[in-house]
Structure formats: C-alpha cells, structure tokens
C-alpha cells in the first residue's frame, strides 16, 4: 500500500514526527490542518451544547416554573424524584424498555443479518423491506401500531376471525401488556437498523475462514460462536451501545401509543421530563429529571464501552 | 499602504454596520403604527389558541373593533391549542409577547393568569370590568385584588348528548335523572352493541372532566367553598365523602357497561368514530363542543348539553366555567388601546356575538335570563335556578392534581388503583 503525498502531509501535521530537515522536507508541511482550525467549531459547540446543557443542569437545583424568578432549593428536586412512587416506576420502566430493546432489536437484527448475508437470491429486496420502517418517523409508526392495537383494531379482529377470541385484549390499556406493546413497536422499527450494522460486520468475515472451520468439522453453531462472533464484535459493540442510548431516552413511541398510561403504567423518565416541564410548568423539577436521565445514559454507556473496550 | 487602507475600511465598516443596523431597526420599529407626537401606537397584536381552524370568534372580535375604531390595526395570531401555553410562556418570558392574549384563568396551567400575574407580566385592568365576571369566578382573573383578565365566554362542562339517537334506542337521560337511572339503562344498550357514554380513557383530561362533572354535585354542591377549605387545610380529598362518591360513580358506570368496549385505552378518535357511527350517545366535554360537532355535521345531528346525573339523594349541579379569557401585556406600548379592546370584548353585543360563534353563554349576561342557544334549553331551568357550581379545577393550585384525578379514574377502570390510591395521589399533588 502506498501513501500519497497529501496523505503523508496530513499525517505529518497531526502526528509527532521527527524534526524535518530544511529544504525538501518542508514541502510536506504545507498546511493540511492545524489544531486551532477547529477552534470555531469547538467554541460553537461549547457555547451551544455544553454551556446550555450546564445552565439547564443548574435549573435542576431551583424551583423555576419557566417564568419569573426562582429560588435555589439544593437537592430537594432529587429527593422528591426518588421518593415519588410514580417516578421510581418510570425509572424502572425506562430500564426495562432499554434493556428489552437492546436484547430484542440486537438478537432479531443479528438473526436477520445472518439469514440475509449471502446465498438467498431475494436478499437485497428483503433487506430493503426490513430497513424500510427505520426511515419512517417513530411517531408515525407508533400511530399505525396504535390503530393495530386498538380494542376494535386489526389485531383483535384477526384473533377473533381465526377463533382466538379469548386472546383478544385491550392491549394498550392493560397495565400488564401496555409496556410490552410499546417494546414490540420499538423493536419492530429498529430491527432493520441493527441488521444493517451486523451485515456490515458480517461482510468482514472471510468466507475462506468459515469454509476452513466447516472442513475441520465445525457445525453452524460452532462456526458462528468461534469464527463469526469474534469477528463481528465491533458491530455488536456499536449496535448495542446505540440501541441502549435509544432505549433509555425513549419518548415518541410512549407518547403516541399510551401517553404514559394506563394510570402511569408506561411512563418513562423522558415522558416524565416532558410532562413536568411543559405540561405542569415545573421547569426546575423537569431539569432535575433530565439530569438524572442524562447521568443514567452516561453511566450505562461508559460501562458498555468499558466492557467492549478491547474489541473496538 | 495597502494595510492602512484595509484598516480604514475595517474601521469604516465597524462604524457603518451598527449604524445601518440601527437605522434598519428604527425603520422596522416605525411600522408599529407609533406616532411622532407621543401618542401610543395604534397597532396591537392579539394571540389566541384554537384547536379548530374554522373558529373565527376572536378574528371577528378584532375585525369588529377595527371597524368601530378607524386607524387601529389588530394583528391576530392563531396558535394551535396544544402549543399555545408553552409558546405564550416563552414569548412573555423573553419580553416579546402579544399586546393582548388569550389566557387560561386560575393558576393551574402554564401561562395562566396566576402564573403570568405573579411574574408581573400582566396589565392591571380597569376594576369596573369586574362586573362582567360570572359569580364565583373573580378569583380566577384576579391577583392581590387586581383584575388581570376577563373571561371571553361561559361554558358548561357537560355531557355532549345526542338525545334523539338515545331516545330511538329507548334511553332517556334528562337533567332530572339520577345516576341510578342511567346505570339501570346501560345493560340493555350494551347488549345492543352500543353504549350510553363514550370515554377516551387514554387521555387523562377526559376521565378527569367526567369525574369533575360528578364532583360538581357530590362535592361542590353541598360545599361550594370546598377548594378554599382544602387550601386552608381544613379538609383533604381523602377525607371528603363527596370525592369518594364521585369516584365510586366512575366504578359503577364501568361495571354497568355504560362506556364503550376498550374505554380505558381509547383516544378522542374513539369518541368521534363512535358518535358518528351512532354507537354512543354522549361524551364528556365543554359544552362548546356541541356547536363544533353540529356545524361539522351540517345540521344532520342535534346535540344538547346535559349535567352529569348525581347519585340518588344528591342534588344535580351543572359545572359552570369561564376559564378562557383575555389579558393585556404589562409591557405593551399601547396600554390605553389594550384596555379599550379588552373592554370592548365584553360589551353586550360583542359578548353575544362571541358566544354565538363559540356555542357558549355570553359573558357579562345574567345567566338566568340570558338568550341561550338551543343546545342549552334543556338546562335553562337549572341555570335560572342557579343550580350550578364553578368548575372545581379552575382554582386548584397546579395541573398535577387534575392529572392525578384523570389518570387515577382510568386506573379505577383498569383495576390498577383504588379510590384511596387516587385520592391520596390528588392530596400529594395538591401539596407538591
């Protein structure tokens, strides 16, 4: 593999290189990027992302209502969060949805990726069909599923038509099933996304290696465990991290499908943030909830990155 | 030399840019109708919320004022109902709110009179306007004795009821019916695949308004000052038998099959679909909905507004509310014009015109003798006899209490909550 002159220059500008000799070597130093070129972008990011986030976090320690003055109330908002049954329930729901989402979308996404990796003639059409829900807005998908899950909707109608009337349920109003219904919609829409990540990972697995393992007598499961899995570890790390973050901040599907009901049974931290901040005008309390959610996402992401650090 | 010219150019630009910007801003500022002789600008803005794009009541009000006051311009800004409170709060906080604004009465909601009033953002209105406030609603528009807003109309939180359809199905509900009369008819209607009431259980406001309609009789009927007592700590939700009766009525209605199948998980679409297919006879909403639906049906449907029948032995009261009104921005540059416009909005002619457009009762009129629209005729006698109570939630301290009631009522239907749970949650929300 050869390196072009421009590539060499770019590397030379960013990496520590031996001091170049005068004359001919200097030509390679023609500006291909200096650290201070990034300053405007860094400044904008600091001003519009980190500073605003920090000021938002400040309100978590106040009783601001979104208008007028406020008082600094210390940790009262946080104490209230962990003492309110509904909010601890929302925390549990958030974790259940997030981990269910990680497991469901990754297992199914990987299975579809394996099935559509090679061999099947219709794989390109099927991949497109499976990926289609990903490009639709979650809120639109959720409204379609709300119609499907409705008491007099297609799901119950179909169950009735095939003689399974006793299986008919009020899916979105049953406190034991509503959370599961939300999870089904989340997983259904995300399968295509994780499948694409795993397909990219599977493309890096040499066919020869699998053939060699097969010749050595390894069955499909053994080949998957000993050859494929280790080689797609980076894809697993990326797909699980992204789906965990997506699962922890789940909002659209809950709002559209159940609105957090019945009687708070599907509330999550994100829906509680919205409700307390914008519906009840408790900006300070909403900011505290948002801070808890952010810290939660940060902790789980760091733990996951740590667990997969040597495989990335 | 080149350097010097460039520097001079930069200096010139440094001076010219702010100057040009200032001139441009000044030019833009001149468009607000201000006059050079110190008189206040004769152009004001009016923001209002509406869920119905066809609603013209505030537009007509603005047009009428401009016709009666040549030289005045009122720029109206319709904002979707679900985004209004947040938009108004943000604009007012940023100092660029409208001169006149549609506002929620009381203190319970974002952008309400209490919330904006406490922040000093609302104009003090002429106290003579207090005369137009319906009985029991003065505290909804006042703060520390100052009047900060006026209602635009009076409505009833009611059962929006298709009496003709119900009668065709052998069901009779009248203002003198009792809860037991209703319960006894639900079973046969259910057997016919229909229901007397539609309920959108997935939207807490809908079971909430239903429970409040019942509580108007069971709680506020015997004790119109219940909210003051609760605020003073003399009572609680859990200690009040009337609240228990109201929630027990919700359970009884559900057990008797008075709601449509799947009511706990239903949205508003279930109500519109059920009503249009003739599968349900009534649902719970502000009485103005009667006109919206009748207009949409182009005269094919006739609806009436009914109070919720109280349990046997309890007097039925209608739940009267004047919770939507107008207020002025304390920072307006046209305070006299804003005062005058708000005063104009509650003048008898305009109030009548507004009420007719909205399907409500004119503000400022004597409700007992007011020229009521046909949908209010069945309860004309109740209104005449003052058999009504102010809608309880208008003076609750925050929106969480109502949410606890609404989602709690749904929890009663699904079996997630008991009456004690709901009342306890409401007490906790009141104190939060």
UniProtKB/TrEMBL annotation, chain A:
<keyword id="KW-0812">Transmembrane</keyword>
<dbReference type="InterPro" id="IPR035906">
    <property type="entry name" value="MetI-like_sf"/>
</dbReference>
<dbReference type="Pfam" id="PF00528">
    <property type="entry name" value="BPD_transp_1"/>
</dbReference>
<feature type="transmembrane region" description="Helical">
    <location>
        <begin position="95"/>
        <end position="117"/>
    </location>
</feature>
<keyword id="KW-1133">Transmembrane helix</keyword>
<comment type="similarity">
    <text>Belongs to the binding-protein-dependent transport system permease family.</text>
</comment>
<keyword id="KW-0472">Membrane</keyword>
<feature type="transmembrane region" description="Helical">
    <location>
        <begin position="124"/>
        <end position="145"/>
    </location>
</feature>
<keyword id="KW-0813">Transport</keyword>
<dbReference type="InterPro" id="IPR000515">
    <property type="entry name" value="MetI-like"/>
</dbReference>
<dbReference type="InterPro" id="IPR051393">
    <property type="entry name" value="ABC_transporter_permease"/>
</dbReference>
<feature type="transmembrane region" description="Helical">
    <location>
        <begin position="283"/>
        <end position="303"/>
    </location>
</feature>
<feature type="transmembrane region" description="Helical">
    <location>
        <begin position="177"/>
        <end position="200"/>
    </location>
</feature>
<keyword id="KW-1003">Cell membrane</keyword>
<feature type="transmembrane region" description="Helical">
    <location>
        <begin position="34"/>
        <end position="61"/>
    </location>
</feature>
<feature type="domain" description="ABC transmembrane type-1">
    <location>
        <begin position="91"/>
        <end position="304"/>
    </location>
</feature>
<protein>
    <submittedName>
        <fullName>Sugar ABC transporter permease</fullName>
    </submittedName>
</protein>
TrEMBL record, chain B:
<keyword id="KW-0813">Transport</keyword>
<comment type="similarity">
    <text>Belongs to the bacterial solute-binding protein 1 family.</text>
</comment>
<protein>
    <submittedName>
        <fullName>Sugar ABC transporter substrate-binding protein</fullName>
    </submittedName>
</protein>
<dbReference type="InterPro" id="IPR006059">
    <property type="entry name" value="SBP"/>
</dbReference>
<feature type="signal peptide">
    <location>
        <begin position="1"/>
        <end position="26"/>
    </location>
</feature>
<dbReference type="InterPro" id="IPR050490">
    <property type="entry name" value="Bact_solute-bd_prot1"/>
</dbReference>
<keyword id="KW-0732">Signal</keyword>
<dbReference type="Pfam" id="PF01547">
    <property type="entry name" value="SBP_bac_1"/>
</dbReference>
